[in-house]
Amino acid sequence: MHTPLTDDTKAIMLLCGVFGEDHAVDPLTQTEYNTLARWLFNQQMRPGDLLRQENWNAATIGASFGIRGERLKALLGRGVSLGFAVEEWQRNGIWVISRSDEDYPERYKKHLKDKAPPLIFGVGDRSQVQGGGVAIVGARNVDAEGEDFARKSATLCAHNKMPVVSGGARGVDWIAMTAALEAGGVTIGILADNLLKKSLDRDTRSPISEGRLLLLSPYPPNARFTAGAAIGRNKLIYALADYGLVVSADYKKGGTWTGATEELKRGNSLTIFIRTGENVPLGNKKMLELGAIEWPAVDAPDRLDQQLAEVAKSTERNSVEEKPALQMPLPLP
Length: 333
Known about the structure:
The protein is an alpha/beta fold. The chain is built from 14 helices and nine strands. Strands 1-2-6-5-4-3-7-8-9 form a nine-stranded mixed β-sheet, with helices on both faces. InterPro entries: DprA, DrpA_SLOG.
């Protein structure tokens, strides 16, 4: 049974969505959409109000910030293409939520503010979209010690009923996700590309149907991989979890280093734990200098959540709170 799309979500999809091979008009970027959303907020309007043609001219006038009126009207006029796309996605079990929906991840709103993606596509149990648990990340190329650490950490999370959040990429991401599933746990994968293809893989179909694997992406279900997309989704991995755990990171290169250091510099950063030891990569050692915390020796296998909370509380960093990007309730619809 599919949850009907709200009018707000329909409008946001028309404005920001990509439908098949139709590239006649460029969808709004997140920055452009935020600007439009700010105008709607000031006018006491909702995105769904733009589904009525009488509001198009008002939006064009009020949103005189570099978005041409013809472009806005062309985007909002893609109703037929949207209908075909949604029908195909739903046929393959894909659902979509927007920043205006009640079940949009509250963690994204609080942690990312206006950087929270306007749209999220998903496959699996939608009720698990609120996240929690540990974000386990690391390099694609990882040594045997790193593999073993990722597997054991993910298994421990599963035994403590803490979801494992990761990126679904080759290497540490998939090792951790697979280990958690094999241990009977819940895993949330936030993908940078091809949500549709991944959801149909033999390895993912069963845990999805069992309600133990949730796949999410801020990108269209058929999106191809780009390095920029992979780096862009890293903040979504951390933002959906209670804690981060970096298994293996190359120093000053790669998505793992970029994503972890970005999170460590955030004013409202998660607690980021890191694997330590004699043979860890240089990036792991350098992250300790940036504020990451050594992954603790587990004192009791059934109280991981409590132990991590205690360690995080005792090592809280006195960082300056980030100023919100917009002086109004965030995120915008």
